[in-house]
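Weekly modeling sync, notes
Attendees: S.R. (lead), two postdocs, one rotation student

Agenda item 3: backlog of single-chain predictions. S.R. asked that every request posted to the team notebook include the full sequence so nobody has to chase files. The rotation student volunteered to paste the first one in as an example of the format we agreed on. Action items at the bottom.

Example entry:
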Amino acid sequence: MLNTRIGSLELSSPLLTASGTFGHDPSALAFLKPGDLGALVLKTVTLEPRHGNPTPRMCEFTGGVMNSIGLENRGLEHFQQVVAPDFSGLAMPVIGNAGGHAVDDYVAMVGAMHEMPCIQAIEVNLSCPNVAGGSLPFATDPDAIQRVMQACREATDKPLWAKLSPNVTRMAPLALACESSGADAITVGNTVLGLAVDWRTRKPALGAGFGGMSGPAIRPIAMRMVYEAVQAVNIPVIACGGAQSADDILDFTVVGAAAVQIGTAVFRRPDAFSIIAAELRQILHQASTTLDELRGSLEWPGRVS
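Predicted structure, as returned to the notebook:
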């Protein structure tokens, strides 16, 4: 009932982990029932190890959480030698996530993941707002996105996803740049840049100052961005931003999303994917409908003369 396709990938469910929220440890999958999670999207890996941003790196606010992790990871060599072998034989697609600061960085990461049998697709992270003074230039410039994605496309024939940023005015030009440069799918989007302060200390709540907002408060922003991307391109659009229930998943589906990544909700409930999958099956059965029937069925209001 929940079977989903993203390009050439066949998934048992439209539910995916959001990069950075499920780490690199497949043992966390023990919380889930088989078939409830469609694919495991891994945390971003960069060529060299990154120590990340100053602490504190996370704080809560009324509508979710904020983070300024700063792409902390142990680098490609550690990923190849220590992490990747743990995913061999996993009963679901594993999506690697490649980060970088220059085109050559991205190409090297994508090329390395191309050689890993455990990686079925590669998500190119163009959009972390906690690096390079607030945003990566690739995330906001269609020409820069084209340079990165065209070069990455030449480095692999595996499915290639582009992860875009919501910290832009218009999503369509960026989505079109991804499609024209060979991306097989687009992930829309990432955290929304924000600022939390503590009036008692007169300081930001996060050690890096600004941080990325995630959770239900950003869902309407993500919904608009997904809709704009779906209207602009013909490749699958994967929603990411604030989903925490079956109704949220179906809302994104009606807007046109091929699948939905979930992150912050898992911090509260590690078994959130199985809870949401069970709710989805029940709702679809009761409504006598399917994901395919709902996908892209949004009826936009007519203009009032």
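Discussion: group reviewed the output briefly. The chain has one domain: 4-52+70-192+214-294.
Action items: rotation student to repeat for the remaining queue; S.R. to check formatting next week.
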